[in-house]
Amino acid sequence: MSTMATNQDLDPVALRQAFGVFPTGVVALAAEIDDEPVGLAASSFTSVSLDPPLVSVSVARTSKTWPDLRRARHFGVTVLADHHGAVCRQLSGPVGERFAGIDVTVTDEGAVTLDEGLVRFSCSLYREVDAGDHVIVLLQVHAVEHGAEDDAGHPLVFHRSGFGRLERSA
């Protein structure tokens, strides 16, 4: 039996590779700020609670987008489909080009969602939790919209620093 290394021996590159073994879905988190869509892509989305309805996204402390985005009253969270790899890269690119050519819906409250998402949530900030080099953003869900399961498609999956897709099992 091998011995696991202690925390003092953790190499950030090796740790990132280890974290990458676990596949995650990818979402767009966006809102209208000063009459413009502002958003980012996140691969750390998870459901948290049904009562109250909560979801979470982890945002890097180095994010230049989150300080502006967190000013919003409402946020849109869009679960990206497996054909959204280029959209995800665009949402991670230059701020002024993130929504170029992407069809979005803006709610009266200012939540921005991508029209072609698998599931779209309208949320508000519930709480932020300090978590090392990230902030865990807890969002309270106020509305959800999704297509019929047969029409929904497959989610975009981030795995080992690349995009993939799920295959439906028989």
TrEMBL record:
It holds the Pfam family Flavin_Reduct. It comes from the Bacteria. The keyword Oxidoreductase applies. Coiled coil: none annotated. The keyword Iron-sulfur does not apply. Keywords: Oxidoreductase. InterPro entries: Flavin_Rdtase-like_dom, NADH-dep_flavin_reductase, Split_barrel_FMN-bd. Residues 19-165 form the Flavin reductase like domain. One of its GO terms (molecular function) is FMN binding. SMART domains: Flavin_Reduct. Belongs to the non-flavoprotein flavin reductase family. PANTHER family: FLAVIN REDUCTASE (PTHR30466), FLAVIN-DEPENDENT MONOOXYGENASE, REDUCTASE SUBUNIT HSAB (PTHR30466:SF11). This is Flavin reductase (DIM6/NTAB) family NADH-FMN oxidoreductase RutF. It comes from Nocardioides aromaticivorans.
